[in-house]
Design brief:
Blueprint: E1 2-5, E2 13-16, E3 25-29, E4 39-43, E5 49-52, E6 57-58, E7 74-80, E8 90-93, E9 102-106, E10 109-111, E11 116-121, E12 125-128, E13 133-134, E14 137-140, E15 146-154, E16 157-168, E17 174-178, E18 181-183, E19 188-193, E20 197-200, E21 209-212, E22 218-226, E23 229-240, E24 247-250, E25 254-256, E26 260-266, E27 273-279, E28 286-287, E29 296-299, E30 304-314, E31 317-320, E32 324-329, E33 337-342, E34 345-349, E35 355-359, E36 362-363, E37 371-373, E38 378-386, E39 389-390, E40 397-399, E41 413-415, E42 422-426, E43 431-437, E44 443-448, E45 452-454, E46 461-469, E47 473-480
Parallel strand pairs: 10-16, 18-23, 25-32
Antiparallel strand pairs: 1-2, 2-5, 3-4, 3-7, 4-6, 7-8, 9-11, 11-14, 12-13, 12-15, 15-16, 17-19, 19-21, 20-22, 22-23, 24-26, 26-29, 27-28, 27-30, 30-31, 30-32, 33-34, 34-37, 35-36, 35-38, 38-39, 38-40, 41-42, 42-45, 43-44, 43-46, 46-47
């Protein structure tokens, strides 16, 4: 058995032996005891020569390859020829060769942020650049293109090799939408830059500029790629819905001028702008200042038919609600009262209708005529009410000289008293006028230039008969009893 050293740089060895057989293998180790954890074998059935260390595997696992013979190192070898039999152990010492260091990267080109695995082989020990330390395998993640160097040493000999990791930068995408806020049915142009090629979401294709018409607010994404490095970005396109008007209601339909009404709008798009409007003819409308909420209280100063509507506005247009109509009745003018007669005392309002007379600030029941005959001392005024709307109180007149003696005269005689149908009047002087008033001061019967007055239409009760002659006025109480 013999060995032939083939020399540097590979330090290969040719093993020679006589005879051959099935199941034979060469066993090589740096330990003459040939432990399986430090022994490499190569099956050589039918051979008498072999050049290694190609295809020698670690005996303990049958997988790990013997990469190379170490420089200037003594190896022991023998041949197993079956049945537990080994030949005599021989040895050889390798030459002191500089190692052939091989360096590979997986992959050699990466994107910024990715990793590459560097693997060195062909030497016994390794020292790396960039502070990576020792060992035959290193994982690196450079931010820019970087050259790594490794020095391999076998025995006293060393050699150095290097490899460059090319780093491609991740593209930085700039995405825009013009406009990024649109109304339902509108379009937006999406544009992207910063890469060489693009793929959009939503099936929009690969152009850098695309046109979209979303029906709802949508987030679009795009992936850009340069030199096999990709990044993604998104853009939001907001779709504004048209305003929703809802239903307008009012708390009343008939008011008095200056009364406050409450306008309410329900089921409208509350994030939009609300504006209440008013019109006095239903054609020309104007905005009510600061009327932007619901419910809204509004004092109505206009009179007659007054119209209201609500306008809802956003960037996609405006809509008007249903029209509300109210009748605003005017406040009657403040009445003025005067005393127009002294016998009897008669007060008169300048308002022909709607009067309610007051005595000492208390309403006089049934005293609603334009005039009022005063039968008691007190302070009087009137308030005019038309269509449920009341004026301010009139001026006041104080009466303090009412007395039955002022109206009495024994020369006048009336009969019958009590009466049913007719009252007769006897007087020494001609009678100009006779009037009957009730306890409310209302004129209920009258007669001119006559000595009788009909009372058949009067109800039972006590009345005052006022008789006017040329030179006097006489008041007599009468009783109607049927």
């Amino acid at each position: 058995m013999s060995t032939t050293l083939l020399g540097c740089p590979d330090n290969q060895v040719t093993f020679n032996w006589q005879n051959s057989g099935t199941g034979w293998y060469i066993q090589v180790s740096t330990d003459p005891a040939f432990p399986q954890s430090n022994s490499y074998i190569k099956w050589v059935s039918g051979l008498t020569t072999y050049t290694g260390p190609a295809n020698f595997v670690l005996q303990s696992d049958g997988i790990t390859l013997l990469d190379h013979f170490l420089s200037n190192t003594t190896y022991y070898w023998r041949i197993y020829y079956g049945s537990g039999n080994y030949t005599t152990t021989y040895s050889f010492t390798t030459l002191n060769c500089a190692p052939q260091v091989n360096l590979v990267a997986d992959p050699e080109t990466i994107c910024n942020g990715e990793n590459s695995v560097l693997t060195a082989s062909g030497a016994d020990t390794y020292e790396w650049s960039h502070g990576l330390g020792s060992g035959n395998t290193k994982t690196v993640s450079p931010a820019t293109t970087t050259t790594y160097t490794v020095t391999g040493t076998s025995g006293s000999q060393s050699s150095t090799t290097s490899i460059t990791i090319t780093v491609n930068q991740i593209p930085s995408l700039i995405v825009s939408a013009t406009p990024n806020e649109l109304c339902l049915g509108g379009s937006s142009i999406l544009n992207v830059s910063g890469a060489n090629s693009y793929i959009w979401s939503n099936g929009l294709g690969s152009n850098s500029t695309v046109n979209v018409t979303p029906s709802t607010s949508t987030i679009y994404s795009v992936t850009g790629t340069t030199n096999d490095c990709s990044s993604s970005a998104t853009i939001f396109v907001e779709v504004l819905q048209p305003p929703t008007i809802g239903t307008a209601t009012i708390n009343t339909n008939i008011i008095c001028q200056n009364d406050t009404i409450t306008l309410t709008l329900s089921n409208y798009s509350i994030n939009d702008i609300l504006q209440w409007q008013m019109s006095t003819n239903g054609i020309e409308w104007f905005n009510i200042p600061s009327a932007n909420v619901s419910p809204f209280n509004y004092p109505v100063t206009a009179t007659g038919n007054v119209y209201f509507t609500a306008q809802i506005t956003n960037n996609c247009g405006s809509v008007l609600s249903n029209i509300l109509t109210i009748l605003s009745n005017p406040i009657p003018n403040t009445p003025i009262i005067n005393q127009i007669d002294s016998n009897p005392i008669i007060l008169q309002s300048n308002a022909p209708i709607g009067n309610q007379w007051y005595k000492n600030n208390n309403p006089i029941p049934g005293a609603t005529n334009q005039t009022y005959i005063v039968t008691d001392n007190g302070t009087y005024h009137t308030i005019v009410t038309i269509n449920g709307c009341s004026s301010l109180p009139s001026n006041q007149i104080t009466i303090n000289n009412v007395g039955i003696n002022d109206y009495s005269d024994d020369e006048i005689f009336i009969y019958p008293n009590p009466a049913q149908d007719i009252i007769y009047i006897q007087s020494n002087t001609p009678i100009i006028e006779a009037n009957i008033i009730n306890n409310l001061g209302q004129l209920v019967a009258t007669s001119e230039l006559s000595n009788f007055i009909e009372v058949h239409n009067l109800s039972n009760g006590i009345y005052q008969l006022i008789i006017k002659t040329n030179d006097n006025i006489v008041v007599k109480p009468i009783l109607i009893s049927k």
